[in-house]
Structure formats: C-alpha cells, structure tokens
Design a protein that fits this description.
The protein has 319 residues and is of the alpha/beta class. The protein has two domains: 156 residues, 3-Layer(aba) Sandwich (Rossmann fold); 134 residues, 3-Layer(aba) Sandwich (Rossmann fold), CATH 3.40.50. It is 36% helix and 20% strand. The protein is built from twelve helices and twelve strands. It is globular.
C-alpha cells in the first residue's frame, strides 16, 4: 500500500508503446484526446497513430476496417464518449464481428469530477458487460494497467479497459503478482465479511477493512479486475465461509459489479447476506474534488465503514 507511481494511463500507454515499437501492426486511434503519454506515439510512431478528431462513432468503424485488414487496433477516448456514445457501433462493428479491437476509456467513475455528469464514467461497466464476446478489465493500479496492455495485445476478441488518470498507491508491487486467469485477486483474507471492489475503489476497500478491524470485524478484500468473463467458481470458493458480502464501486449500482455479484448469489441457496455500495440511480450534478463527490454519494471510506457497522449491528470499537 505504500508505493506511489505514475497514473494508470501513463503505465498502460507506456507498455503499449513498447509493444507498438516491435509490432507495426499495432495502431492507436484517439478522438482528439490529449495526454503527455501519447506524445511518443505521435512523434516516434506517427504511421501507427491516428487522431480522428471529435468523431468517436466514426472511430469505431475505422478501427473495425483496420482490424479486418490485419491491424491490431486500440481506440481511446473519455469513458462516456467511447462507451455510451459508441455503443451501437461497438455492438455491431466489433462484437457481432468478433474483431480484436481494444476499447480504452479514460476517466473511470468520478475521475473527471469537475466536469459534471457529461464526463463521469458511471455506467460503462453496465453497458460493456452486456455485449456478447466482450472482455472487460477494470485495473486497480498502474501495475495492473500495464499488464492489461500486454494481455489485450494478445487477446483475439473485443476488449474494454477502463482507466484512471491518477496515480494511486500500488496494490501490486509487480504485475507478475497478478493471476490474470482468475480474474480477481484476494488482497486480504476475512473471517466475517468480504468486500468485492474494482478499479480505484479497491484501494478504498482496504482502508474500510482497516477501519472495520477497530470494531472487531474481520473484513477481507477481493479486487475484481476482470469483470467479464466473470470467474464465478473462484469467487464462490473465497466467500463460502463468511456471513456477509459487500460490493464497492465508483459506478452506478445498477448494472455494475453489484449486478454481477447479485446474479451469482441468486444461484446460491446458502448465500451470505449481501449489500451493495455504489452511486445511486441518479446523475451527480455537483462539482468538486473526487473525494467530495464520493462523500455526497456515500461511497467514501468513512460512510461505507459506518454503514457496514450499522448493518452488522456493531456500535462500539474494541477496547
């Protein structure tokens, strides 16, 4: 937890740049989205870089055509513009065709907290996980983001990767610690309760687990970094002995990982008691820091810790 690094976006595109230098089939298309980490693509690999302008829907069609010609294509834009705005194009041009185009969204959750609901990435998981054949990655730190550049390069079908701009304490010192085949990591074991989280909120989940320990609640944390395909049996084996289960996400509760876990629990007669924490079913029209918006929506560490204590009926800290 004490390791601080560059942001997920820089880590992801740093790895992708190394891949693209070796493989001229790799093409990156952006929709007029700037970032310092893209400068090397523009300067060194300008024949593999296309700025298509503010034309995200067209970008998906161009990417599909390039993929059909043998290119390995990455498309990049702000989360709601690359998912919600392009949903029909992704559905038809990429998923129906089974094309290996990598859709990369920047600004997960409230990352663009000062730009309002037009820029909030709060429904992308719900959209992308409905699409047949789509693989969905939600890295929790820069090590995972770097790894998913490598993994997506080799993947044969359509892929969605949601990224954060900022740098957070590393949950994984080395990306080799991440077992990609499992789709999740057990960050902390728990005896009473498990928190299943994704993306930025996995760091927050560990803070919540520490807060709950002061009330003699032994909470574990599962980082769900691959949302689809979902490794149901693996998750079941981890949570089978606890009485309580929580999901935590900076995403609308509707259709997010709360939905993924609810679908799993509906098949289980001996499921733990379940509670979800996410953004309520309404747009956030307030502006400010990310932490401010999290508090408004009750998904900051203090709010979630208090809500879990109330749910479990634990009022006093241990001596």
């Amino acid at each position: 937890m004490g390791y601080w690094v560059k942001g997920m976006r820089d880590a992801f595109f740093g790895s992708l740049y190394k891949i693209a230098k070796k493989d001229k089939r790799v093409v990156l298309i952006t929709a007029d989205t700037g970032a310092i980490c893209l400068d090397r693509f523009r300067g060194d690999l300008n024949k593999q870089y296309i700025n298509i302008g503010i034309a995200e829907q067209n970008m998906i069609g161009v990417a599909a055509g390039l993929a059909l010609s043998g290119k390995i294509v990455y498309v990049y834009a702000i989360v709601p513009f690359i998912t919600a705005r392009c949903f029909d194009q992704i559905r038809i041009d990429l998923c129906c065709m089974g094309l290996p185009v990598k859709v990369v969204g920047i600004g997960a959750g409230f990352d663009y907290s000062t730009l309002g609901p037009t820029h909030h990435g709060t429904e992308d998981i719900a959209l992308m996980r409905t699409l047949p054949g789509m693989t969905v990655y939600s890295p929790s730190d820069s090590s995972a983001a770097s790894l998913f550049a490598d993994i997506s390069y080799k993947h044969k079908g359509p892929t969605y990767i949601r990224l954060d701009r900022e740098g957070w304490p590393l949950l994984y010192k080395d990306k080799r610690e991440i077992n990609v085949s499992s789709g999740f990591s057990l960050l902390k074991k728990g005896k009473d309760l498990y928190i299943i989280s994704t993306g930025r909120m996995s760091c927050e989940a560990l803070n919540i687990a520490r807060g709950l320990s002061r009330y003699s609640i032994d909470a574990g944390v599962i980082d769900l970094f691959r949302i689809k395909p979902f490794e149901e049996q693996g998750i079941r084996s981890v949570i089978k002995d606890v009485g309580y289960l929580v999901t935590l996400e900076e995403h609308f509760v509707t259709g997010g990982i709360s939905g993924v876990i609810s679908e799993m629990l509906s098949k289980n007669n001996n499921a733990p008691r379940f509670k979800s924490f996410g953004i309520p079913d309404k747009f956030c029209r307030r502006y400010g820091s990310r932490e401010y918006l999290q508090r408004l929506n009750g998904i900051d560490a203090d709010s979630v810790t208090k809500a879990i204590r109330k749910w479990l009926g634990v009022k006093r800290p241990r001596p």
